[in-house]
Amino acid sequence: MRNAIRIGLLLAPGVGLVLAFMGAVLYRAVAQAFGLYDFSGTSDGLSLAHWQDVLTTKRFWRAFQWSAYIAASSAVIAVALAYPIALWLRKPFRGSLILSAMLKAPLLVPGLVAAFLLVNVISYHGFVNEFLVWAGVWAEPRRMQNDSNGFAIIGLQVWKQMPFAFLLLSGAVQAIPDPVLNAAQDLGAGKFARFRKIILPLTTKAMQAALVLIFIGAAGDFSFQTVAGPPSVNSMASYMASLQGSEGDWNGAAVVAVMLMALSLFGAIGLTALVQLITRTLGRLA
Amino acid sequence: MARLVAEDIAVRFGTFEALRGVDLTAESGSFVTLLGPSGCGKTTLLNVIAGFLQPSRGRLAVDGKDITALPPEARDSAMCFQSYALFPHLSVADNIAFGPRQKRVARDETVRRVDGLVRQLGLVDHAGKLPNALSGGQQQRVALARALAVAPGLVLFDEPLSNLDAKLRDQVRNEIRALQRDVGFTAIYVTHDQAEALALSDMVCLMNKGVIEQKGAPRDIYFRPRTRFVADFIGAANLHRGKLCGGAMSTPLGVLHCCHEDGEDVEICWRPEAARLGGDLSGTVKAVAFQGAHVDVFVSAGPETVRLQVPGELNVSIGDTLQFSVPPEGVIALEASANA
Amino acid sequence: MRKSPFNTILSGLLIAVMTVWLAVPFGMALLWSLVDPSQAWSYPDILPPKLSFERWSLMWDSTSLPIAMFNSYSLAPMAGVGAVLLAMPTAYAFGRLEFKGKAVWQTLVLVPLIMPGFVTAIFFASLLFSMGFFARYPAILVGHVVMLLPYAVRILSVSFSLVRQDVVNAARDLGASPISVFRVAYLPVLKPGIFAAFLIVFILSIEEFALAFVVGSPDFTTIPTILYSYLGYNFIRPNAAVVALILVVPNVILMLILERLLQSANPAGISGKG
Amino acid sequence: MLRKLMTTTLACALMAGPAIAYDLTEMSWDEIVDEAKAEGELTWYVWYFQPEFRQAVKPFEEQYGIIVNIPDVSSGDDALNKVLAEAGRETGDIDIIALGGQAGNRIDVEAVFLGPILPLLPEADRLSDEAEGVNWQGYGVKYWGNQTGMAYDANRVDPETLPQTLADLEAWIEANPYQLGFNYENGGSGPSFIHNVARNVLGITPDSVVDEVPDLVSVYDWFNSREDKFGITASNADSLTRLNSGEFLIVPAWEDMLFGLIRKNEVGDHIEFYIPEWGMNGGGNVIAIPKNAPRKAAALLFAAWLTSAETQTALNGVFGSAPANTAADDSNALVPNDQRANSRVWSAPLSDRDVVPGFIENVVQD
């Protein structure tokens, strides 16, 4: 009993504070989504009216789909790029140190600055357009800022998040001892068999963690969307900020917040399950 | 079963020569140990045989077929690793079944082999567990079973017992030897423990600085070491260097006799247990260590100290003068070492 | 180690590509920031007509850049110290004690990392609003401390677990007071962890945008919010270039220091996954 | 624990702020000036041109020895939200705030602001409390007039061929696909364009009377049938930045904003401006003093200075804004006076609020 109190006291300023704060924030979001704490003062009681208001707009559903699309593509591409590089750099060789340092460089650049730098380069008469037109690849400059596929944002997300995926994955890949791989090879496993039967299952957790963290980060993105995204569509975060900021609709913003958290949760579960499935399937192949 | 022939194997790492032209033949069904201090090249040679390292020179053949260029997965060998290298995400049974599945052994044959090995190695209760849940000795057995499951002609052991405690080590060592006889594979076994090597092997290859100093049956190696290195590494040896004239060398202890041709600068050695009490060699007792069945006695004369092993009943004290002799057949003349 | 020409060629190629990948955007930004205020750079000029540092001094003098830098660089160290101090007891419990539900608590402390930043920011602001709390500076400070606490807890837990019990016992055996025990047995091992935790909270606080933007709205500026104002709403390319460059340089230097400090640490240990 | 900590801090903060007890309406102007000088500084919330305004208020600071703090305010909406959020607070942060004229529709001005202040100002008879068609009942005083219009690249567009009517515009878009860009949020220039095109499509003229919002399908169709022939931009500033860099030939813009950018060479002087015959909205900003302003006298003195004929003339010179003081000189502007006839109001007939949200939902998101 005394011990439990002691542990409690030790945890209070750390975990306790975090849980109190995040719990209050979470409760606030859910409560406001269901009509409580209505600052406009029109109605203050449980209601689904705000869900009705938000969920019937095209703007919300486009934002929802857009964020889901951007988050899923960014997570998958970032991991798909980071994974082979982490495997390749598993053992050091000449130049591999410089390379992994350069791979981590985007961690140094704040996201907003990265977005600005990119917009600068891909603008209508920016470097890329001028260069490709000069080189004769494109007949005329292209409007990459208004790209409805969101390639610029996905590119930025991948650029910013790949180092993170790389750190997680290379940690996991490097933790596989050489003898284990040698043993597999010795027992007749070729390169691909070693990958799918040993490396993949042993790095599944790291891969899931990387995918989930990137997905959640990208689903909640605001800065890339507002600086480099196509202006005709919102991300969940920018829609939420616009509802709360420009229109003073806190309750509508709360509905979007709850949906964003749901998107993060289900996206995370989906990606985790997908990785599990792929690992299993590949492992079962004879 | 397989007969392995390695010819003139050399391996270079940058400017460092890890192996400098090694020849080795392991007869079908024999147990060959690669013995030597760390850095002698024994593990390098094992990795060349397994295929993890490409030799910069030389060739390997199994049953007359050249395998030098084959990747490890295509060779008819299986390795037991020092760290066991079990697959942490697979159960014991799946670990054992890994090799047969890779080699596309029929499903029921795989099951049969796994069952057999699990039973043979006393792992029946553990087949469904993950490796982390097992003790060191059990893990070692799983590693062994996993290697044997591919029914290899050649099993390679990389210091498999070095992570076990002394008692378990003896037990597993005997099991390995028994299995090897039962199953009938050719074994190449790397160790730095000379007792292990002597106890297990049909042939011991003692390696030093990238070459095989001497190979032969354990008795051969022990009783007829060819070089000072071999004499020193295997068991204990008393060494003397000097002029051999008429089969006799004079040392501070007295005159030693030896059945060897004369020479100006000859090195001879004898084993502590070759000494007999009483005779014309003598020295002062410097230290005594009672070992039960025998006593180790350290005797000095002038600058030299030798070690004698005498029956346990003998009661000597420090400061006594001890008279002893060494029969000429117990004294061996050594060649200059290849690496001297 | 076998030398493979494939590795050499591929890594050389990648290094070259990444240099271009970094050099072109920063070069463009630098060029834009040097556009002299006396002559505009507009289509179809390929290069700016006149270059000078005029715009840099203009931006520094006439914007609230100095205030934003003051805010960010005073918030960050306080958030760092606050997070480290608050994380200590929890990290001690995680690193040195065994108790029921430890794994659950260790996961729960990571909640701020997976909560979308704008959700935390907007509904924290909503709470403040209801409470009638208008002091933005302390509000943002508290927000940063809580949001970044998980990092400090993770890093310090690892540090605490590295403290050797035999050294602690030896110190107590020799009659040291609790303070001396802490100084002799704990502090030397904790020091790098404390420093790393402080620095990572410092850097992330400087980079934090959502909370500072929403809670600080409309006029409390930090480095990221002023960046957003110049890169987003009031996007004028040459000015944006100046602000971006002024703000990115100290960040890079800090991150390089952190990289040195964390080199030995396992990244998976810090992020808590993998 | 957190809540407790915060309420304690709040209590301390409240006790520290002394309530200022004086009534501006009962003081003579000289007394107000003296009180203002005693207060020594003030905070002005204005959401645009902050760097320029910091320069522009120097004469005031020198004349009265009162320091003017102009924080970087993120947007007009955010500033308005702050005023509303903090209306219940005893002492606020804001002494005086600039607001778009239409904000008067969203606020109960009597509840939030001090006043009426218009009659207190020395030059009251040359000033107005009406902006963007909204009457501020003396609680807000217009200090800034501006105009939306179309900015174009004069190097590449012949002024003779500029579209003037809706039909011209249709033909121009057909002839110059993807050379028109406009924003729908983050600034009013694009919404002004959308609003006025809608009015033209619906056949609403300035003197029409609209009792209820008509069906806007024809408006959405007009835009949707041309959706691959114009570009959506992110903000007022983004439109001009992309016009300057050659991506577009014509974009809606604010006259004062463009003027400022050209003056500082952030945009080249080949970018010119006109108000088309299809009409573009004129804007007007007011200043108002929140009821809980900590330095009311200084705020009022500043309001008087800002709206004075002298200052208004100077602002016209620096920003090209339309003076709000009838005695001021308005010779600096980007458009000739005859084009001012094409200026329209935001609220009537048919308010932009009835058009733009539908546009976002049915055109942008479609």
Can you describe what's shown?
The complex is a heterotetramer of chains A (286), B (340), C (274) and D (366). The model of chain A has no long low-confidence stretch (mean pLDDT 87). Chain A contains twelve helices and no strands. In chain A, helix 2 packs across helix 12 and helix 11 runs antiparallel to helix 12. Chain A has a single domain, classed as MetI-like (MetI-like fold). Chain A has 286 residues and is mainly alpha-helical. Chain A is globular, with a radius of gyration of 23 Å. Chain B is an alpha+beta fold. Helix content of chain B is 25%, strand content 36%. Chain B contains eight helices and 19 strands. A six-stranded mixed beta sheet of chain B has the order 6-7-8-3-9-10, sandwiched between helices. Chain B has a four-stranded antiparallel beta sheet with strand order 2-1-4-5, with helices on one face. A four-stranded antiparallel beta sheet of chain B has the order 17-16-15-18, with no helix packed on it. The mean pLDDT of chain B is 89. Chain C is mainly alpha-helical. Chain C contains 13 helices and no strands. The C terminus of chain C is likely disordered. Chain C has one domain: MetI-like fold (Orthogonal Bundle). The longest helix of chain C has 32 residues. The two termini of chain C are 28 Å apart. Chain C is globular. In chain D, helix 2 packs across helix 12 and helix 8 crosses helix 14. The longest helix of chain D is centred in the first third of the chain and has 15 residues. In chain D, the strands form three sheets. In chain D, strands 1, 2, 3, 6, 9, 10, 11 and 12 form an eight-stranded mixed beta sheet that branches. A two-stranded antiparallel ribbon of chain D has the order 4-5. The termini of chain D are far apart. The N terminus of chain D is likely disordered. Chains in contact: A-B, A-C, A-D, C-D. At the A-C interface, helix 1, helix 4, helix 5, helix 7 and helix 9 of A face helix 1, helix 3, helix 5, helix 6 and helix 7 of C.
Brief sketch in words of this structure:
Chain C: Keywords: Cell inner membrane, Cell membrane, Membrane, Transmembrane, Transmembrane helix, Transport. Chain B is of the alpha+beta class.
- Regions of chain C with pLDDT < 50 over 5+ consecutive residues? 264-274
CATH top level of chain C?
Mainly Alpha
Q: What is the average per-residue confidence, as pLDDT of chain C, rounded to a whole number? A: 83
Indicate the overall shape of chain B: elongated
Question: How large is the share of residues in beta strands of chain B?
Answer: 35-45%
Protein name (chain D): LysR family transcriptional regulator
Signal peptide (chain D): 1-21
Keywords (chain D): Periplasm, Signal
Pfam family, one (chain D): SBP_bac_8
